[in-house]
Write a structure and sequence with these properties.
By secondary structure, the protein is α/β, with parallel strands linked by helices. It is about 30% helix and about 25% strand.
C-alpha cells in the first residue's frame, strides 16, 4: 500500500436489486481503500460484483428498486447519499470512469473532439479555443496520431484500441483524483492491451491519480497493479499485494484464476485448466463459503461463513475467506501442469 493521500474509502458496501424473484445481493460487504498514486485491481468472473461496485461509486447504479448499505466516500464526500447535482459535479472533476465498451460509451453522431470539449467546458472555466487546444493535447498524450486532424473524426472511424484511448483522454480531461477503468482491455488484442495499460501507467505516474482497474483477467494486472482484490459471488474472497496474490495465493478461487492464465514458461497443455462448475445464482447462493460447490478442497467447516481475515501473521494485510489451515493451502494449491505460488518459485521447499 502506498503512503499517498486517502482518496476512496469504502466500508461494508452492500448493493442489492429487488426483483420479482426476490432480492439479488450483487455486492455483499465489500471494503477497500484507494490512495493517490495507487492502482487497485478488482478481479473476478462475470457476475462477481466488480462492475456493480464501480458503477455504485460513480452514482450510476439505478436508484429505483436498489438497496444500499455501508459507506463510500471520495476525499470525505459521501457518494452513496449524494444528490444528482453533487454527483454531476464530482463526475469528471473528481472521479471519472473508462467504460467497458467505448463504442457504446461515445456518441456515434458527434465528433470525438466535440465530446471531449463539451466535458471540459462543463467542469472547467475555459473558452472554446482553450478547451479545443487542451483536447488536442490530451489526444496526443494518449497516443492518438495526427491528433489535430483526428479530433474531427467520428467514433466509427477509429479502431477499438484508438476508441479506448479517446475514452481515457475524456476521463482525464478534468484531472480527476480517481480513475475507474471497467474492463478497459476487453476484446482488444494483446498488443493493444499492453499499449492501453502503458498509457494508464504513464498517466498514473504523471498525475498521481488513484486507479481502480476492474477486470476478469489476473494476467492483465500483473505489471500495473499495486494491490489486488478478488471477488466471487458478490464477496471479497482474497485481497493483498500483487506479490502476495501471485506468489502466495490463499483462496482456492484465486488458485483457479491463476491456473487459467496461459503461461510461456511451461510446456503447452492440450487445453487451459478451468474452474469446474458455474458461479452460483445470486438469488440462491450456497450457505457458508459461496465457492464451496466448486471447490475440491471443501470440508465440513465450509458450511459456515468464513471471515475475511489475515491467516499469516507475517502478512497482516493479506486477507482471505477460506477455512483451510495455512500449511494445507501451501501444500494443496496446484494446477494441471504444476504448482503455483511460492512452491513454483522454489521459495518453499
Amino acid at each position: 500500500m502506498t503512503n499517498g493521500k486517502l482518496l476512496l474509502d469504502v466500508e461494508h458496501l452492500r448493493v442489492g436489486f429487488r426483483t420479482e424473484d426476490g432480492l439479488v445481493q450483487a455486492v455483499d460487504d465489500v471494503s477497500f481503500q484507494l490512495r493517490s498514486g495507487e492502482v487497485l485491481a478488482i478481479v473476478g468472473e462475470s457476475g462477481s460484483g466488480k462492475s456493480v461496485s464501480a458503477l455504485t461509486l460513480m452514482g450510476l447504479t439505478p436508484r429505483l428498486n436498489t438497496t444500499f448499505e455501508g459507506t463510500a466516500t471520495l476525499e470525505g464526500q459521501d457518494l452513496l447519499n449524494a444528490t444528482d447535482d453533487e454527483l454531476r459535479r464530482l463526475r469528471g472533476e473528481k472521479i471519472a470512469m473508462i467504460f467497458q465498451d467505448p463504442m457504446t460509451s461515445l456518441n456515434p453522431v458527434q465528433r470525438i473532439g466535440g465530446q471531449i470539449v463539451e466535458q471540459i467546458q462543463a467542469h472547467r472555466d475555459m473558452g472554446s479555443q482553450e478547451a479545443y487546444d487542451l483536447t488536442v493535447e490530451l489526444l496526443e498524450r494518449v497516443g492518438i496520431p495526427r491528433a489535430r486532424e483526428r479530433i474531427r473524426s467520428y467514433p466509427h472511424e477509429f479502431s477499438g484500441g484508438m476508441r479506448q484511448r479517446v475514452m481515457i483522454a475524456m476521463a482525464l480531461s478534468c484531472d480527476p483524483s480517481v480513475l475507474i477503468a471497467d474492463e478497459p482491455t476487453t476484446a482488444l488484442d494483446v498488443t493493444i492491451q499492453a499499449q492501453i495499460l502503458a498509457v494508464m501507467q504513464e498517466l498514473r505516474e504523471r498525475t498521481d491519480a488513484g486507479i481502480v482497474l476492474v477486470t476478469h483477467d489476473l494476467g492483465v494486472v500483473a505489471d500495473i497493479a499495486d494491490r489486488i482484490l478478488v471477488m466471487y459471488a458478490g464477496r471479497v474472497v482474497e485481497q493483498g499485494t500483487v506479490d502476495e496474490i501471485f506468489y502466495d495465493p490463499q483462496h482456492p478461487y484465486t488458485w483457479g484464476l491463476l491456473g487459467s492464465i496461459a503461461r510461456v514458461d511451461r510446456p503447452r497443455p492440450d487445453r487451459l485448466p478451468s474452474i469446474p462448475g458455474l458461479p452460483p445464482s445470486l438469488h440462491n447462493r450456497p450457505k457458508g463459503c459461496h465457492f464451496r460447490p466448486r471447490c475440491r478442497h471443501e470440508f465440513g467447516q465450509c458450511a459456515e461463513v468464513p471471515a475475511l481475515e489475515a491467516r499469516d501473521p507475517a502478512a497482516p494485510l493479506h486477507t482471505d475467506r477460506c477455512w483451510l489451515p495455512l500449511d494445507e493451502k501451501r501444500s494443496k494449491r496446484e494446477i494441471a501442469d504444476g504448482q503455483i505460488g511460492l512452491e513454483a518459485k522454489g521459495v518453499i521447499a
